[in-house]
Amino acid sequence: MSDAVLNQFTPATYKEESAAERKLKFGIIGTGWIAESHTESLKRMPDAEIVAAADLIPGKAEAFLRRYGLKPVDRYAAAPGIRCYPDHAAMLAAEELDAVCVCTYNTAHTVCTVDALNKGVHVLLEKPMCVTLDEAVEICRAEKANNALLSIGFQPRMDENMKMIKKIVQSGELGKVYYIQTGGGRRRGIPNSTFIEQKTAGIGAIGDIGCYALDMVLNAVGYPKPLTVSGYTSAYFGANPKYNNPADAARFNVDDFGAAFVRLEDDIVLDFRISWAMNLDTPGDTIILGTEGGLRIPSTECWNGSVGGPMILYKEVAGKQVSFPIPLCEQKTGLFYLKLRSFIDAIQKGLPAPVPSSEILYN
Ligand SMILES: NC(=O)c1ccc[n+]([C@@H]2O[C@H](COP(=O)([O-])OP(=O)(O)OC[C@H]3O[C@@H](n4cnc5c(N)ncnc54)[C@H](O)[C@@H]3O)[C@@H](O)[C@H]2O)c1
To answer: Domain residues for 199?
Structure first.
């Protein structure tokens, strides 16, 4: 990972840290790429510890733990260390965990989350929440039926600029919001590994990066319910060996571009497009149009929470059309750290989920 990514783990000086409460016992489900950010963040928490890890690939959890300076042990070992399991079910059956981080590829999110919730274990579930609406409903039902907390891993929610977008909308400066355009993406940026196949990812660009763009604006306007959705996906690049390496092109069977026109409650229209590859630099900035003002949010990668430059607010003042930049907010603490910290705080202090499933269900 690059320094920019690793810097996201920078811990804050939380006052709770000195008064560390009981250490919450964590299990990591899926020890792939994103598990690194969960593990590095958890290692910095005085009131949490990783006690177990599971991965379907033999030896992967052990190698992963060693890579991050942790001591893996066999699941039957009495020796101190982090017990390793061949899958999430074996781990949940054997361990008395407080919480798990579900870091599997998308198509395993539902089974891992529902099984953990049904054991009363709190879950921090990576984004996208799942692949289908039926799965999202199943997850929400399991959460409701059990006394366990579920938060979805949208770290941009912790970003000061993202919070500013919500503050501007909620302040009423824009008046009544009636139209939103969002999305973004890459000219060329198709990932590989488990991201490009139905059996593991389920969905492509829309689930990988589209969900962030949607969350940015839907969270700002208070997650109104979608009333109708006309959606489109295509895959003209990922499956083409001209644009993707031949081995990846041969197995590519998800979307690399998605668009949708959504009618939301409160008479809001949402226009969305996202791309892993296209013949353009950006499909457009995010814009939020209201009766009293408009906000332009320069196009961004979304996942790291940063906006693509100062946002511009457009207003009419004393009959004059004016526009001015909103100064960028400084982000002092790493987003991945805050994602874990806010989840642990919610458990320890009985607070609501930092990113509730009841919202992300609509995402
Ligand atoms: N928040 C972010 O910024 C961010 C960034 C990258 C990826 N992600 C999300 O994280 C998730 C994982 O991505 P990744 O790149 O780490 O994937 P990955 O394929 O590298 O790792 C997933 C691992 O989960 C394991 N697994 C699957 N089912 C399992 C089960 N039932 N029990 C135990 N292990 C199981 C797999 O064997 C695999 O090793 C995806 O949903 C992705 O969208 C989030």
So the answer is: 160-326
